């Protein structure tokens, strides 16, 4: 039996859609490395639901992860593999659309992770942290498995910061302000989505932290 709708307070298609988008990125990364069908599916699986597996298995520990008890997630990952194979080479033509869908998936995953964490009794900071892990964990695992420096650790367009902002807004609205869960969830999703899209459009980036020649903290580079 699937209890996800009550726990997530968001339409299931949004969670499944986020899984699909992240699975496509994992499949494309595997295909570009000339993996076989097993490798492509494995990397799509890790990218699509890796954050959720970390959330459920490491932090919440509330039985089998929902992504493994609901067959639709594995089906969506398989569909992501097929989409990555069929359309990955032409992704540049749809880059703007794909970036927007990716931003929506990121936003949904962050809020979903935080919502489940609050339902499990985690503290406010912990719920925010788990929400960010839920959103960015799959991509980090993908990079580690392919021996790449995790994208989330490198200076670049707001990604983790966008997720942390929307997730924090959701948690604060629910736990401190008393908003209804669904209204707070959509507020958090909107905040992450808008910030991420603006970061892509205006190329807002983080800067590396460095020491100067004396060993003292220096100014971040542009």
Order of helices and strands: HHHHHHHHH
Instruction: Write down how many β-strands occur, each being a DSSP E stretch of 2 or more residues.
Output: 0
Largest sheet: none
Shape: globular
- First-to-last CA distance: 51 Å
State the low-pLDDT regions, or none: 1-8
**Percentage of residues in helical conformation:** over 70%
Quote the average pLDDT.
85
Number of helical elements: 9
In short:
By secondary structure, the protein is mostly helical. The protein is built from 9 helices and no strands. The N and C termini lie far apart (51 Å).
Overview features:
0% strand; 9 helices; 222 residues; single chain; disordered N terminus; 71% helix; mainly alpha
Describe what this molecule looks like in 3D.
This protein is mostly helical. It has one domain. It is built from nine helices and no strands. It has helices spanning 4-8, 12-32, 37-60, 66-69, 71-87, 95-119, 124-145, 160-177, 181-202. Helix 6 (95-119) packs parallel to helix 8. The longest helix has 25 residues, at 95-119. The protein starts with a helix and ends in a 20-residue tail after the last helix. The relative contact order is 0.14.
